[in-house]
Amino acid sequence: xxxxxxxxxxxxxxxxxxxxxxxxxxxxxxxxxxxxxxxxxxxxxxxxxxxxxxxxxxxxxxxxxxxxxxxxxxxxxxxxxxxxxxxxxxxxxxxxxxxxxxxxxxxxxxxxxxxxxxxxxxxxxxxxxxxxxxxxxxxxxxxxxxxxxxxxxxxxxxxxxxxxxxxxxxxxxxxxxxxxxxxxxxxxxxxxxxxxxxxxxxxxxxxxxxxxxxxxxxxxxxxxxxxxxxxxxxxxxxxxxxxxxxxxxxxxxxxxxxxxxxxxxxxxxxxxxxxxxxxxxxxxxxxxxxxxxxxxxxxxxxxxxxxxxxxxxxxxxxxxxxxxxxxxxxxxxxxxxxxxxxxxxxxxxxxxxxxxxxxxxxxxxxxxxxxxxxxxxxxxxxxxxxxxxxxxxxxxxxxxxxxxxxxxxxxxxxxxxxxxxxxxxxxxxxx
Length: 431
Description:
9-stranded mixed β-sheet; alpha/beta; two-stranded antiparallel sheet; about 15% strand
């Protein structure tokens, strides 16, 4: 694929304190949509696929920062919900500005309520705890274990009742009753005008629609119930498209585009990997797919854990089965291509055979899976954990996981010529 050469950039110091010790010094060139990666170790289209998952999206920001620091800039970003927001900030800014804009977004949506006090309290009481009677030791241990969960519960309650000023705020008319007809654009618990203003200030839509980096956002039609992907390759995108991809009902209201109402594509397909593998024309790619919801998990032992596990399964969106289906389809494309090589030349030139061989393909796809770890005691509401501590830990985890994968560089391995798709999964890390 053709690539475009643009001026190199001077590296700016990173603000991410946890990762400063391991930063790479080289900066990449900008690349054009559909072009080859500027990173010398990747001679293919680089694609970043981002799931939806609210506050869990801080992990995606950490993953991108590691790629950015390694000199790997995506040619194409595909996202749903928070993945669409992160993706639009990445694709909608010049590479030199991406990290500052991404960090600005996450700083604005960080919950500014009470701080985490349990560690301070525990430290203050530690000397006294050493002298408490043995009969109270169990009670002290239970209290110490309970405090973090209690504070997290209070944070989540505050976020749900008050919202986040730069993201969403409660709708007063939601209290009129769930069955009161308020119209589709108002049929939600929260207003998202603050998010619109935040995105408009952080995304350069003129640059985005210049197509230096391709962006695709996933939505689902409210009336049709069908997935629809909007991409700047085919049409100009604006803040409405990003808002539509993040319009998760019934929390957030639907968004109209050209008269049609859309919701968050995550309620239909939260892992938009098929957008890459079904693309035409198809290009050999290294695909970094960032999973926020674990498909695998322990058996729940309580109703709370059962509810959490149900959400993990639902929003992991059958990613593994979708990928396996795509691998089977892509293998058939390779088989068709190989069979065509064994046909006599005069038969290959016939119209009917040419049409059949057109289904063949010789591209290779290196899928790099990065899975967010679990944090905290309230896994059920982890996607609304916009606390500074929660965002920091997920961001750091994303950076560390991506950095390990970059160090492995599995895309350098020669793929099986008949398979077409190779899958490389990150090793689970202890949170």
